[in-house]
Every structure is written in C-alpha cells, then in structure tokens.
Amino acid sequence: MSSPLPQHCPQPRELDDLELVVSGAAAPIAGFNEPGSPITLSLPDDLASHLHGGGAVELVDPEGLPLARVTEGARGLEVEPLTHAQFGPFRRLYLSPAAVREQHAGRTVVPISDLVTDVQLRQLRRLGPVLLLALVGTGTPALSPVGLLRATLRVADQLDAAVVAVPLADHDSLTDPALRVSVLTNYAGTDPVVELEYGGAVLPELADIAGAERPEPAEQGLVLFFTGLSGSGKSTLAQALMDRLLEQGGRTVTSLDGDVVRRNLSAGLTFSKEDRETNIRRIGWVAAEISRHGGVAVCSPIAPFDRTRQQVRAMVQQAGGAFFLVHVATPLEECERRDRKGLYAKARRGEIPDFTGISSPYEEPQDADVRVDTTGRSIEDALEDVTVALRTAGYLDLARAKTEQAETAVGGRTSAEPGARALATTERPLRVLFVCTANICRSPYMELRARTMAGRDVSIEFASAGTHGFRSHSVDATMAEVLADRGVSADLIAGFASRPLTRDLVEAADLVLTAEAAHRTFVLDEVPHAFRKVLTLGQFAESAARVDVSVGGADLVTAVGHRRAGATDEHNIRDPYRRGKAAAELTADQIDRLLTAVLPRLLRAQAGAR
Ligand SMILES: Nc1ncnc2c1ncn2[C@@H]1O[C@H](COP(=O)(O)OS(=O)(=O)O)[C@@H](OP(=O)(O)O)[C@H]1O
Ligand SMILES: Nc1ncnc2c1ncn2[C@@H]1O[C@H](COP(=O)(O)OP(=O)(O)O)[C@@H](O)[C@H]1O
C-alpha cells in the first residue's frame, strides 16, 4: 500500500488563488509559481523539497478536505483538482467563467467590491442587463465576503442583474491590476466590462449591512496583545488595564496571560521555537474567536517571534476584530535586575535552556501600536501610555472620571496631562506628501489645490513627489489650466518643480497620500515600516469618515493608521495625462471631492477635538 501524500493547508489568499486556477478564472495561469505570475504558493521547506524530488502534495482546506494535488511541472506547480468546496455561505454563487458564459452571456459585466452608492445605482440602471461580479477574495472587498454578497444581492433585486462570486484576492503587488483584468475578461468573454463610478452615498437600504460590517469602535472585538521579555511588565500592565476596563464596564474581558495559558491551554509545551509558535498561535486563535463576538481579549505572552505575531494579527483581523500591539520594551538589564521569579539567575547559570533574552532570541516588533519602557516608572504612569494610545487610535477611552484623576495626580502631574501630551506632538505643522507617478499632473494638482484650500493655516504643510518623478518639470500644461480655472494662483503654479520620491521624503512626512494603490505599494516596498501613514487619498477619505468627527489633525492620522479601510481600485485616481482637458477635469473633480472631505479635518484650527 502506498503511503498517504503529505498534506498542506494553504493560506486564505492561496486558497482563493487555487479556486481561480481550478475554475479557469485565472487563465492563462494554470498553476502556482509560474514565471512572473502573482499566483504563488509558499510551502514549508520539507514539502518544497519533496515536490522538487518528484513527489506530490495534497492541498487541504482548514477542515482537512483534500482540494487538489500539486506536483512540480515545467512552468511551476501543476494543480490537479480533487474535491470542490461545497459548503460556506452563498456557495451556489461561485461559478466558473465557463458556467457564467453559458448562463449569463449578453450582460454587461460590473465588478463590485464595496457597498453600492446612489450614484452607482443610477449608473447600473443605465447599463441594462448586468452581471455583478462580487470580488470576494481575501483582502479585496471593503467588507466581509458574506456582507458584500448580501448587499450585492439586495442591489440586484432592484435591477435586471445576476450575481456571481469571484474569489479574486488582493496580492498587494503591482501585478494585481493585470490579474484583475484577465479574470474579468475570462468572465466577460465578448461582453463589455464597466467599472463603477467613484463616490456617492451608500444606499440607505444597505445601512443595516454597513452597520453590522463596520461596528462602532465600542462594539468591535479587540485584542490587546502585550509582548516583551520576561519581567518587562506585561502581566502587570495587562492586569492594570483589565481592572480599568472592568471598572468602566460595558465590555466582556478575557485574560490570556502567558503563564496562565501555559498551565492550561498550552500545558506540556516546551520553550523550543516550534512550541513557542504553537503556544502563540493557540492564544491567537482563542483571541480571534473572542474578538469575532465583540469581546476584548488581553494577551500577555512573551511572543518573541515577529512572524507568529503577524499571524495572530491576521487571524484577528480575519475574524473582524482589531489588533492592538503593545511592546513592553523594558530593556533586558532592567528585567534581569528585577528578576522577580529568579529565572534570569538560573538561566545565566545554564539551568534553564533557551531562555528569552539570554539564550533564545527576542525579535523587537517594528509594528507596535505603542512602545512602553517601564524602567523607573510607576505602573500607573506606564499604563497611561497605553490608554492614551488606545484612545487616540479610537478603540477604548479608559480615561478616569475627572475627580478620580485629580485624586491620583501626584508630583505636579495633573489630570490635563494626557491631553497636553497628545497636543505637544502636534505643535509642529502636520506634513502631508502627495505621490503619483511623474509628479507633473495628479500629485501637483493635489498639492497646489490643498495649499490653496488651506489658505493661511500654518498647522499643515503640503508637498508632492513622483514614484518615477521627473526632475524639475513644471505642472503639465492641461492640469495647470484646470488649476488656474479653480482658483490656484499663477505664482503657485509657476513656482512648482517636480521631483522623484526619496526615502527621506517618506520618512519626513506624517501622512503620505497616493493617487493609486500601485503607488502605495511602490512606497511600501521601499519603506515597509511606513505602512500606517501611506494610503491612497481615496482610502484615507473613506477611513477618516469612519473615525469620530471629533478627532482631527495628527490624531486623525494616527486613528486612520490603525483603522484604515482597504485600498480598493475604486479609490484610484486615474492618470489623465495626455487624455485631454475633459479627462483632467474629471480627475480634478474626484480630487476636489476627496480634499473637500478630508482637509477640514486635517486643519488644526477646525479640528473639533481642540
Ligand atoms: N526558557 C524560557 N524562556 C522564557 N520564559 C520562560 C522560559 N522558561 C520558563 N519561562 C517562564 O514562562 C513565561 C513565558 O511563557 P510564554 O508563554 O509567555 O512564552 S512564549 O510566548 O511562548 O515565548 C515567562 O513568564 P513571564 O515572566 O510572565 O513572561 C517565564 O516565567
Ligand atoms: N512601571 C512598571 N510597569 C510594570 N511593571 C513594573 C513597573 N515597575 C516595576 N514593575 C515590576 O516589574 C515586574 C514585572 O513583572 P510581570 O508583570 O510579571 O512581567 P512579565 O509579565 O512581562 O513577565 C513586577 O514585579 C512589577 O511590579
């Protein structure tokens, strides 16, 4: 009897890709890892070498259902389908391009990845019979796949429309647009494909879906994840924070403390790298489920590996929760000095192998929402850093009642201090950098229009640059005309000189707003840690709309960094270069709409919070 094939459960994005490959939607791509293809599968080293040696691997879904068998072929990994996924909400809507051509030929094809607006419904009505392709792949829709399908079906009821679900995932790379075009074309055949216009207000009949999908921060599940060395203060801060949460009431709180988890959920695991990863993934899994149901999970394991922390973040976000990472960055010397449990001394004597910080690594997080060094500080004071960050990010407001704050104020600290601290960081002007390709058309328009709109306000500065920016060119002549028509002074326009984007420009900016998602990807490939402050202008506008109107200026930038909407194609501001004045006007209209929505909130003088 032959031994069973090794099995592997791919990541959600890879499972979506598998479905596209099997259904023919990805054609001409027919497998994984073909040269230059965005459809890739990453396998653990042992499985990769098994394939390389001529073996086969079975890909299974998270429940273990075998979906396909992969082998190494001439162009990459060849895929032989086994079983088709049969369950899951709206499975019946997942059709292959061949089935769609057979059942729905003759309809105008319209891709949908967000809630439809009034403007878009009018556009759809004008199109006649339509096929709404709901793009439900991982990371693509602005809401959950089920939410998008429920909303799209509701819109379809008002039209002559068919709805089909397509698991086109977001690969967050420059190859995405090409894949999108080929998938849409495979579904459309010879029928036209029309993109929805940008803008408008979400249809009132979708409000309940929008509400359920985008819960108010007070209702969204939240995972507070403290990471740091043993003795850094994770448990102490986590406990103090939970006490505050419980005193305030209104939320269910679950503690997943490192030590406690190891005595229960993870009993028997060692401190090898593998077992630590298992331990953290277990914590992540439980925390994600808690967040799925709107609860707050407070976790405080060491979690020394970046990759595992990222996996937890992904699990939580997948479950619709928010993930907030606190790096308790107390240095090793201080943790060792405290040595509350006497473990460091033992580790130094070699009595505990693989001890974090001594004989096992701790990878410092680059993506922490807040970093707290507890050295020489009171617990209350260190906790303040966390509660301020939580409040600023729009998750929890754990401010004590004023009377209580006054009572706890010591050594000249007053109840006003947290607010004062937040203000101090915003005293210099907020620096906003606009980015497009050549820096002669869209980004100069954004910069000069924004400067004109801001007038004499000194709380903000605008600049622009291009991912492939020309050096010292003036504004494109057509765009310059549009700028002049819209009240931008001739001096400003004449004084403009284009420039290429540099790392320093990104580092120096508080907020980088790009014309298209591809520009955002370009910037992040260069400066990955800037991910919170680099957004498309449309993505920023949509994200800002979700943040309470009382939050403005630098606080708004921080809040959006933590609660940003996905960058979808609808957000892209298309390039009008050399497409005539009408195209330039349309682009200008789109930019004006977005700037009008966001600028008043970025200008300190008008931001409601102050
Ligand atoms: N080898 C080794 N390395 C690090 N820590 C050790 C080790 N052996 C035991 N301990 C005790 O276990 C606690 C850390 O467990 P965690 O589950 O948080 O660790 S991990 O996230 O799985 O890496 C940690 O507790 P905290 O001090 O609360 O962090 C230690 O008390
Ligand atoms: N500002 C502070 N914040 C948190 N802990 C502090 C602080 N100052 C001193 N400590 C002490 O440091 C130790 C931290 O231990 P613990 O919270 O168990 O750390 P961990 O969970 O990271 O191992 C405790 O004894 C705590 O009283």
Describe the protein in words.
It is a single chain. The protein is built from 24 helices and 17 strands. By secondary structure, the protein is an alpha/beta fold. α17 links the parallel β14 and β15. The radius of gyration is 26 Å and the shape is globular. Adenosine-5'-diphosphate (ADP) binds next to α8 and α14.
Topology of this structure?
Layout: E1 7-8, H1 12-23, E2 31-32, H2 45-52, E3 56-60, E4 66-72, E5 77-81, H3 97-104, E6 108-112, H4 118-126, E7 130-135, H5 145-156, E8 161-166, H6 176-188, H7 207-213, E9 222-227, H8 234-248, E10 253-257, H9 258-263, H10 273-292, E11 296-300, H11 306-318, E12 322-328, H12 332-338, H13 343-348, E13 370-372, H14 379-392, H15 402-408, H16 417-424, E14 430-436, H17 442-454, E15 460-466, H18 477-485, H19 490-494, H20 503-508, E16 511-514, H21 517-526, E17 534-536, H22 537-545, H23 553-562, H24 580-602
Parallel strand pairs: 1-3, 6-7, 7-8, 9-11, 9-12, 10-11, 12-13, 14-15, 14-16, 16-17
Antiparallel strand pairs: 2-5, 3-4, 4-5
Helix pairs in contact: 8-14, 10-11, 17-24, 18-24, 22-24
The structure holds 3'-phosphate-adenosine-5'-phosphate sulfate and adenosine-5'-diphosphate (ADP).
